[in-house]
Amino acid sequence: MRDRTPGDNRRTTGIRWPRIALVLILLVTAWIAGWTWWAEGHPSEERELRVFVHRQLTQLFPEAMSIESDAWYGLVERHPAAPDAKIRVLLVHGLDEPGSIWDDLLPALAETGLGVWELRYPNDQGIDRSSDYLAGLWPELPPDLPIALVGHSMGGLVIRDWLTNRYSRMPGSDGQQEAAILGAILVGTPNHGSEWARLRIWLELRDHVVGSPERRFSLLSALRDGVGEAKVDLRPDSDFLASLNARPWPAAVPIQLIGGRLIRPTAEMTRNLAGIGEDLGSEELTRRLTRWWTGLGSDLGDGVVTLESLRIPGVAEPILVEGSHRGMLLRYHRADPAPAAIAPILETLKRWTDDRGAR
């Protein structure tokens, strides 16, 4: 029998590693498929599990998990109010938002002299916890001018949950609160959920891998935002949405809904769907996702939120503009025209300001 040489060992090792890698990929894929299958059938239990994990991590690593250690969170004044300003605006971002969504709206608001603040919150935690966070920070806003809230995507649900379920219970909610509310503008808000939430496992992987340069890094920094509870809340017919939509909007608070409408799916969205199948090496998955996507038909909405999901019972129909979920607020290229949702936002703020002055 011939003795094994170092060259034989290298060849054996070279063959072994691709097999090991393939087995690992198959195991990870099987785990993801199994988790997704279980989560689809047990959404309430999934959310409870995620909340439990979040609490355990906070208890085990209180300093690393504390949002106090990350200066990105909290209320940030983006533009001071001009001396003759009549109102302020509070911007509330959505899920997995790196902070750029307001880059085109901010200068437009600043040109009008309005004071602008931004709420930055742990957006992957349960939406109810995010509305609690807003409630806790609200007294820190200057009380001298009424405030209009503008929420994009899930940010609109944070506003709705706070106003319908918590604001009325705050001390001084009989009109003596720190700052009066002018109204709320919800842009691209999935009031009845979004089917994209069913792909939340892939959104979570992206969220934990892609960070923001403004954020303080730690091994647990990606989990300070939460461990995916918000994506469960965003699922159509979730317990959270059922509870939220059972509560009427406060009649004394003006509200304006704004939504995007695509003529056809953008190239970026088509690439994203194809990329999921390519990452797993499954052409069948790509075909299934594409059929689901195109099956949305005329109710496609902005590509993330359907037209039907924009609506709130008892609230006027939304203003519809042409644009994608982010594109209606944010240019993709500097040379692009102003995002279509900015004009109706400014018009709504002016109308509410004039109406308040006339009273």
Automatic annotation (TrEMBL):
The chain crosses the membrane at residues 20-38. Gene3D superfamilies: alpha/beta hydrolase. Keywords: Membrane, Transmembrane, Transmembrane helix. This is AB hydrolase-1 domain-containing protein.
